[in-house]
Design goal:
- The protein has twelve helices and four strands.
- A four-stranded antiparallel beta sheet has the order 1-2-3-4, with helices on both faces.
């Protein structure tokens, strides 16, 4: 894998402006948001590359049969096209690659994490008129077709294998040790999908302390989403300190402590202590 090189500060600022604008639009476009994440990771993904990725999704959608039938027919058509003919799928090794979380790379490599492969399935199927949506099972993202009473699930990571109810229960049990709750089968909101993708990027970077730059931009993009965990502000502050930006990091720690103090003064004091220690690093 080539090292991920970030764009210039000016390019990054423009990408983030567009990301925030799209995330706050009435109907956020999932493929656009995912491609902007990719551009923040890879300076080589320019405007032509962004357009080319959208064109590829359009091209794949044009290869699907016209209105193949009900939900199961759509699932089988996607499996035949993307899984069998085009070779999209995943393996355990893909969890070790940052490219597996970047849509433009997944479209080229045809390999990726379950959630990015599901984005490909969803975006291709949506363009073709399929009743498709993401299903955020714990630990394993899949796609769904059709309404609740006739829902059909498919696993893009496994080449688009159509899942039985028992298959879904096994996936959930393997991830949580508990049974399948019907609430887990609800359609995932596009912004929740993007946040989960950014969480995967952060997990990749957390295992590689030398890539704190990747952790930082993933956190900062997450903070641009209309709804995000407040603790991300704390994570960003600690990353700034880790990267040697002691004063900005200390200021953010102190601001976070003020928020936390309303519910947990003990935790706020600990965060203030971290801010004090960060400032001491300047001496």
């Amino acid at each position: 894998m080539r090292p991920p090189y970030p764009p210039s500060p000016e390019r990054s600022a423009e990408l983030r402006r567009r990301f925030a604008e799209e995330a706050r639009s009435e109907r956020p476009d999932l493929s656009t948001l995912c491609l902007l994440v990719g551009a923040e990771a890879d300076r080589e993904l320019d405007e032509a590359g962004l357009d080319a990725a959208q064109v590829e999704l359009d091209r794949l959608a044009g290869l699907l049969p016209y209105r193949p039938g009900g939900p199961r027919a759509w699932a089988l058509a996607l499996r035949e096209l993307l899984g069998e003919r085009m070779g999209f799928g995943g393996s355990p090794a893909d969890y070790q690659r940052l490219e597996s979380s970047l849509l433009h790379e997944v479209l080229v490599r045809r390999r990726g994490l379950p959630i990015l492969l599901s984005v490909v399935w969803m975006e291709v199927a949506r363009r073709a008129g399929a009743p498709v949506y993401g299903v955020a099972l714990p630990g394993h993202f899949v796609v769904g077709f059709g309404p609740d009473e006739g829902q059909v699930l498919a696993d893009p990571f496994d080449g688009g294998r159509v899942l039985t109810g028992a298959d879904a229960e096994v996936l959930v049990a393997g991830a949580t040790g508990t049974g399948l709750d019907p609430a887990m089968l609800r359609p995932a909101d596009p912004l929740d999908v993007v946040l989960r993708i950014l969480n995967n990027v952060r997990a990749w970077a957390a295992a590689r302390p030398e890539r704190s730059d990747v952790s930082l931009w993933a956190v900062e993009l997450s903070l641009l989403l209309p709804s995000h965990p407040a603790r991300l502000r704390y994570e960003r502050a600690r990353l700034l300190v880790q990267r040697g930006d002691y004063v900005p990091g200390a200021l953010e720690l102190e601001a976070y402590a003020e928020v936390v103090s309303a519910v947990d003064e003990g935790a706020a004091e600990r965060v203030r202590g971290e801010a004090f220690a960060a400032r001491a690093m300047l001496n």
